Amino acid sequence: MITPFIMLVDDEVPFVETMAKRLATRNIETITAFSAKEGLEKLKTNQNIDVIVLDVQMPGMDGLEMLKKIKTGFFRTEVIMLTGHATIELGIDGMKLGAYDFLTKPCDIEELVSKVEEATKKKRMHDEKIKDAERKKLLLKYEP
C-alpha cells in the first residue's frame, strides 16, 4: 500500500485541522497551508508532495490562480480542487486548467481518500516514467 504525502490548502482553519487528523488515521501524511501563498512556499520546499487538496475560494490568491502557478511551474504534483456547492463551475474550470479532479464541500472522507490514492498513483507512475527516460538517456550516452 502506498503512503500518500499531501498538502491541504484552505483558509478555513477548523476544516483543515479536522481533515488533517482524519487523513492521518488513514495513513496519509499531511502538511497544511492556510492560503495559496503559503501553499506555494511550502511546495517549493516540499517538492515530493504527491497531491495538493486545494480550496477554490480563498482570500487573496484563489485556488485557480494557485493551480495555474503549480501547472506552469516545474511541479509534478497532482491537484484535487475543493468547491462549495455554489461553485461547481469553478471546480470544472480547475479541471480544465489541469486539476486531477474536484470534490464539493463538505466532502466525504472516504471519497477524498480514494481520490488522493488515485492521484498519488498517477503522480508516482509519471515520476517513474521520467526516471526511466533519464536512466535510458544516461545509458545511451555512455554506450560504446
Describe this structure in words.
The chain has 144 residues and is α/β, with parallel strands linked by helices. The chain has one domain: 3-Layer(aba) Sandwich (Rossmann fold). 51% of the residues lie in helices and 17% in strands. The chain contains five helices and five strands, in the order E-H-E-H-E-H-E-H-E-H. Strands 2-1-3-4-5 form a five-stranded parallel β-sheet, with helices on both faces. Helix 3 (63-72) links the parallel strand 3 and strand 4 (78-83). Helix 2 (36-45) runs parallel beside helix 3. The longest helix is centred in the C-terminal third of the chain and has 33 residues, at 109-141. The protein is globular. The chain starts with a strand and ends with a helix. The mean pLDDT is 88.
How are the SSEs ordered, and which strands pair?
Elements: E1 5-9, H1 13-24, E2 29-33, H2 36-45, E3 51-55, H3 63-72, E4 78-83, H4 88-96, E5 101-104, H5 109-141
Parallel strand pairs: 1-2, 1-3, 3-4, 4-5
Helix pairs in contact: 2-3
Quick overview:
The protein is α/β, with parallel strands linked by helices. The protein is built from five helices and five strands; from the N terminus they run E-H-E-H-E-H-E-H-E-H.
